[in-house]
Amino acid sequence: MRRYNLIKSLGILTGVFILLLFAAGCGPATQESELTDESGSEDLGSMNSEVAQAVQEEPEEQQAESEEQDNEISTEPVSDDVGLAIDAESIEVDDNGLMVGFTIDGHAFRGDPDASIVIQEYSDYQCPFCSRFYFDTLPSIEESQLATGEAVLVYYDYPLNNIHPQASAAANAARCAGDQGAIAYWAMHDALFSSPNQWSNIDANAIFAGYAEEIGLDVDEFENCQSTGKYVDVVEADLDSGIVAGVTGTPSFLINGQLLVGAQPAAVFADAIEIIKSGDQLASNEPEPSQGSPGAAPTPAAFEDEFAGAMGDPAAPVTIIEFTDYQCPYCAQHSLDTMPGVVREMVETGRVYYVLKDLPLDQLHPNARFAAVATRCAGEQDAYWEMHDTVFANQNEWAEQTTSIKNMFSGYAGDIGLDEADFSSCLESGRHDQSVEANVNEARSLGIGGTPFFFVDGYPLNGARPLEHFQIAVELAEEGRLAEAFTPPDEPEPQEPSGPQDVPIGDAFSIGDPNAPVTIVEYTDFQCPYCSRHFQETYPQIIDNYVDEGLVRYVFKDFPLNNIHPQASLAAQAARCAGNQESFLEMHELLFSRQNEWSGKSPLDIFAGYAEELEIDSAAFEQCLADGTYADAVDADLQEGVQLGVTGTPAFFINGYPVSGAQPYSLFEQAIESLMAEAGG
Predict the structure, then answer these.
(1) Do 463 and 587 fall into the same domain?
(2) Global model pTM greater than 0.85
(3) Contact 254, 245 (CB under 8 A)
(4) Mean pLDDT of 151-176
(5) Cα–Cα distance between 60 and 50 in angstroms, integer?
(6) pLDDT at position 75, please?
(7) One domain, residues 524 and 456
């Protein structure tokens, strides 16, 4: 079996290769949508891990504040010798003979609460892989671990609201059912996972009420609970507790405190439980291996030859391996803009053997795995690359489909001359599922953080890059000098600033008195849910109490995390285009208050509708967007933020002092009052 030497340490990319650092890509690759830190900010690390390492960390004072906030969020006891704190009066026995009930803090459990193994499940009712766990794995766990008293399962909500707009409502529905008992909770839990297609993309409360009636609940009581959003804050607290515990996506599990990620088969859970019972650590929780001494080149690792497609001469002097996600816009950009040049100049000339592997980022792109299987099915009829090109060329057509995607792909198969019956049979067989998952697992073991991701003779390149970058890399590989480019220079670590930073205002839009004693500069991303939280909860209070009183000047800067928020840059441009007509603030408000309307979609028409709603010149606004008038200005803000140490959104500088994350109003109030006192205000 052919094996490829690949890189084990992916964080080093310096020296003459520094020009290749800055690239776009979809991420993260660990199954899920948003990378967040404890302070509630979206992380730039998934966009470019090297950049994230280069910028400065939080000052010690701010880290202490984050740690103090983290300590306020409690999670269930999960050690071997500490049991669950349960509400004894809530315990019932369900039809399967399992004990069910609630913990003191309101989390539903199944199994013996005195079991030595506590499995905390962080899940999202709209997540397809959570549904897979429910159907494929949970029954076996119930039979082998829960019914035997070996383990107890505790359910936590982790709704990925930016990609699953009904997930929080579903979580609230389950908890509302729980008001009528633990058996009622689990009955609603089962109903939600059993039929997500009925409620996922519509106003779902009426459907949830129907489930309540079928279950035999008091429907009036249930609907009153739903309509008031009784458990919205509790669900949000679960999300925060998961972030603190290291959860980045769904489903994720803490087994006696050790993290296990993904809809794993039952055998994996059984093995994990045995490992934990023996006192050992799961592999994913072991300390990271040493990266070696300073100045050393990365150490190559062996990479098995399991791939989706390949082209060129396997004996070519250089091998390029790409990990891709068919629903990722940056992968499509590479396929449409750069790959033809790579094929023409390098593959067809015998210089490069090109290998493609699948890495569907399921939580960001729920249709990506289906597309990966479809291209492999086309490969059975010697048409892998034809389907590859067709799928990327038509990405906008199929990416948002829910019910007709199979027919759509069968149509693509017919268009490229395949036997549609054989193709459909392959899709339904599931015979490529394990191969796709094998690629995903390899990517995880290599620490890949997003797509597209490339290896040139084993050396990593992340993101959608211009052809010139591949030309440089391949030429260095042909000359035997590629390894030298990855050897980091012996340079001292950059020092953190000792005081406030000089944040340029330039021509950024601002409100408030320019001579106010305090200036707040916000770096934001219109598609970021934590920026939206700041806009809704904290920003209005700052405006009312300080900006309107002439005490604070508030400055707006853009920091779009393009790899996880592909519409964020265009939204930033929309605000600026509206600003041409004195409507920046109004568009800013619409973009945040209606984030779910345009996030994850093709938003040009939606933004044009907002312009009409604001009664500005729609033609001028649309021309401004079409021309990309402010694209460079938005990118300049992003690069400026990186230089200032910004790694995620929202990020703030209060008179130059950095504050990270969607912090409560009280933190801003304290900082503003302190700075005004220093200024004698």
Answers:
(1) no
(2) no
(3) yes
(4) 88
(5) 22
(6) 36
(7) no
